[in-house]
Write a structure and sequence with these properties.
Blueprint lengths: L7 E12 L5 E12 L1 E4 L18 E4 L2 E2 L17 E2 L9 E2 L1 H8 L20 E6 L6 H12 L21 H12 L6 E5 L14 E5 H4 L11 H5 L11 E6 L2 E3 L15 E3 L1 E5 L11 H17 L5 E3 L4 E4 H10 L1 H8 L11 H12 L3 E3 L4 E5 L5 H11 L4 E5 L8 H13 L11
Parallel strand pairs: 8-9, 8-11, 9-10, 13-17, 18-19
Antiparallel strand pairs: 1-2, 3-4, 5-6, 6-7, 11-16, 12-19, 14-15
Helix pairs in contact: 6-9, 7-8, 10-11
Length: about 425
């Protein structure tokens, strides 16, 4: 919105605190005359705990644009028309408004012609968000898992494939959704993919959220139940009504500051991916590898066979931008990969990680994805430095997204409690995805 606001010498109050001999403190105000170019307007909000929720990112900034005099030079070598309004700071939208453009803006109302149009680089299509979620303490789910384990031969599973930490829930999803509402409100709809489970606190009457059962999306429901994220990820693009561009997230990922869809997608529809500095070793997939590593090596072998090129880097544990069109094409081209993944009840050395890795490699190799850059923190909450990371996140709040992953060493530990305290402090207000009572 444009408004007439002229910079001028303005009287402002400054405050200082003076201590008295008896220990009392006196607030003293003085008047200061200085040029006023910007006003930051915000509402002061506090959480139930008393924590101040007001920060610079939530302010509305009103700028005072300077009026140009005759003959004032422009940065491009020309001269400004007298009466042109010039922005006090650089931006990527408009640096000055001539008198005619200002008049047009005032008549339309408070906006310049064309301002309602998306810019060429803006994402102008809907973007949905897909979570996978499990309540590992649910007795019925545990019974299904135990029955499935009885059918698995000795030595066929890596112990991490069935570790408690892989299925533990600490209400991370609740806090992750709060972070979405705070910092990614551009998301259209949220889909939560589960195995016959619904979070008790979730407001399922909210039209922007839908719980999707595994039976709705698996091409062959007789493969169910599965307890393997690689299997579930291979079927997410089958969700009815899902936007073509969407984010896939685990519930241990949180938005840390205001974001835009352009962080994850190009305006022309390309998806972005976020490479890690972690690299794959040169050995083939083997029983000594953790399932996540063997899946990455399986991806590498497929890329080498298909495109005659290799890969060396892993991906960051962030939201994963996805394209349904790309995944549909992949499933048609490699049906055996998707069938094998969907039939793998527990993580297995022959799995491919389709949504969280193979999609990105394939899309990049076919000119439908580009490398992106995201400000990011990953923390295994069982590590010794976890509390230091929690304090950094609490103090700085300078990352786009962060992941608080867990291992067996963290289940029931003091660090687990510290993590929940951190999330409650960062995201204290219930979202509209939660029941009110």
């Amino acid at each position: 919105m444009l408004a007439s606001f002229h910079p001028s010498t303005t009287t402002a109050d400054a405050a200082s605190v003076r201590s008295l001999p008896d220990g009392a403190k006196v607030l003293r105000r003085t008047s200061v005359r200085e040029p006023l170019h910007r006003l930051s307007l915000f509402r002061v909000l506090s959480a139930p705990s008393g924590r101040d929720l007001t920060d610079a990112a939530s302010a509305v900034v009103v700028e005072g644009w300077k009026l140009a005099s005759t003959g004032l030079a422009r940065a491009d070598g020309g001269e400004h028309v007298e009466g042109t309004r010039i922005a006090p700071e650089g931006n990527t939208v408009v640096r000055y408004l001539t008198p005619s453009r200002w008049a047009a803006a005032q008549s339309s109302p408070g906006r310049w012609p064309g301002s309602q149009l998306a810019r060429l680089g803006d994402v102008a299509v809907p973007v949905d968000l897909v979570y996978t979620w499990v309540d590992g303490a649910d007795p019925e789910w545990l019974a299904r898992k135990d029955r499935a384990l009885h059918g698995v031969g000795a030595g066929q599973l890596n112990e991490t494939a069935v570790s408690d930490s892989r299925f533990a829930s600490r209400d991370e999803l609740r806090y992750s959704l709060r972070s979405v509402e705070m910092y990614a409100s551009w998301v259209r709809n949220v889909y939560i993919v589960t195995d016959r489970q619904v979070p008790a606190w979730l407001d399922t009457s909210n039209p922007r959220v839908r719980v999707v059962d595994h039976r709705e999306i698996f091409t062959d429901p007789t493969r169910l139940p599965v307890f393997n994220s690689h299997a579930i990820e291979s079927q997410l693009h089958h969700i009815d009504g899902l936007s073509d561009r969407y984010l896939y997230m685990n519930d241990d990922i949180f938005f840390g500051r205001p974001t835009s869809p352009e962080l994850f997608f190009e305006g022309d529809g390309l998806t972005r991916f976020f490479l890690s500095t972690a690299v794959l070793d040169l050995d083939p997939p083997g029983p000594r590898d953790l399932p996540v590593l063997s899946a990455a090596k399986q991806n590498r072998e497929l890329v080498e066979r298909t495109f005659g090129r290799t890969i060396t880097q892993k991906f960051k544990h962030t939201p994963h931008p996805q394209s349904r069109a790309v995944l549909d094409e992949m499933e048609e081209r490699f049906p055996e990969i998707f069938e094998a993944a969907s039939a793998s009840r527990f993580r297995h050395p022959e799995d491919h990680s389709i949504a969280s890795a193979l999609h990105h490699y394939y899309a990049y190799a076919t000119a439908r994805a580009v490398p992106g850059d995201v400000s990011y923190v990953y923390q295994d909450i069982a590590r010794p430095e976890a509390v230091l990371t929690f304090n950094r996140l609490r103090r700085l709040r300078d990352v786009d997204v962060f992941c608080l992953n867990d291992t067996d060493g963290a289940v029931g530990s003091p660090k687990e409690r510290s993590m929940v305290d951190l999330l409650d402090e960062l995201f204290p207000l219930p979202s509209r995805f939660e029941r009110t009572a």
